[in-house]
């Protein structure tokens, strides 16, 4: 699918969502992600695919933080509490070595087939020793294989191009564009709504997601790449 067509579909989807200040994570998970990112302030942060600036808002608590939220949906960006830029993440409108931290909160899986180009752009705008951090749906997870891929049970709540990601493939791609280190771990979010989907994950699957089973049972993975 040509990028222009993809962006029109994704942009329409998120423009429709943007009737309110959209937050995808519960308060519990927002604090958990904030701890994982471990941003200490005093630097520049780029939040790519940041939507209404949920993560930017959290990181901006730290003193000396200069945040920019980038997204394709102008309507989403209207809610951003920090500087907002409507742009294509595959052609970031920033100079080389501009940011100390790039955050990709549930974004990479919206651009299947463009991971290498997206990673290369993130690497370009990061300063030396800067970090690229994010989280995405885990393609090894049984639930994601059933409900997020293109099969008959795919849920309508997902945007047109959302697909889960294989962590090992993302790691290989990151190293191929000269990131020096890539780490990740599996986990599952705690949604506010107690849907059957959430109940099964929280009380039936996650308690048994220990050791090798985490790869199959946990729906998400948090990841971090460093530019050296």
Characterization of the model:
The structure is a single chain. With 228 residues, this protein is an alpha/beta fold. 34% of the residues lie in helices and 23% in strands. The protein is built from nine helices and seven strands. Strands 3-2-1-4-5-7-6 form a seven-stranded mixed beta sheet. The longest helix has 15 residues, at 3-17. The protein starts with a helix and ends with a strand.
Please tag this protein with its features.
228 residues; alpha/beta; 7-stranded mixed beta sheet; 34% helix; globular
Report the span from N to C terminus. 34 Å
| Structure class | alpha/beta
Strand content: 15-25%
Helix content: 25-40%
Give the low-confidence spans: none
Number of helical segments?
9
Whole-number mean pLDDT? 90
Strand and helix map with partners:
Blueprint: H1 3-17, H2 27-37, E1 43-48, H3 54-59, E2 65-71, H4 74-77, E3 83-86, E4 99-105, H5 115-125, E5 126-137, H6 142-147, H7 167-176, E6 179-187, H8 196-205, H9 214-217, E7 220-227
Parallel strand pairs: 1-2, 1-4, 2-3, 4-5
Antiparallel strand pairs: 5-7, 6-7
Summarize the structure.
The protein is α/β, with parallel strands linked by helices and 228 residues long. It contains 9 helices and 7 strands.
């Amino acid at each position: 699918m040509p990028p222009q067509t993809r962006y029109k579909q994704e942009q329409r989807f998120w423009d429709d969502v943007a009737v309110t200040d959209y937050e995808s994570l519960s308060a519990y998970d927002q604090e958990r992600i904030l701890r994982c990112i471990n941003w200490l302030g005093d630097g520049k942060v780029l939040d790519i695919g940041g939507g209404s600036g949920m993560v930017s808002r959290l990181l901006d608590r730290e003193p000396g933080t200069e945040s920019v939220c980038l997204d394709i949906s102008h309507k989403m960006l209207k809610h951003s509490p920090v500087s907002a830029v409507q742009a294509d993440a595959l052609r970031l409108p920033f100079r080389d070595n501009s940011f100390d931290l790039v955050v990709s909160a549930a974004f990479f899986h919206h651009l299947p087939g463009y991971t290498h180009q997206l990673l290369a752009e993130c690497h370009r705008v990061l300063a030396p020793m800067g970090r690229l951090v994010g989280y995405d749906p885990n393609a090894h997870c049984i639930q994601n294989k059933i409900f997020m891929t293109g099969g008959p049970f795919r849920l309508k709540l997902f945007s047109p191009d959302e697909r889960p990601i294989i962590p090992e493939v993302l790691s290989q791609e990151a190293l191929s564009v000269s990131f020096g280190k890539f780490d990740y771990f599996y986990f599952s979010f705690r949604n506010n709504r107690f849907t059957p989907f959430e109940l099964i994950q929280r009380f039936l699957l996650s308690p048994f997601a220990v050791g090798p089973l985490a790869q199959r049972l946990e729906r998400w993975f948090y990841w971090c790449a460093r530019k050296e």
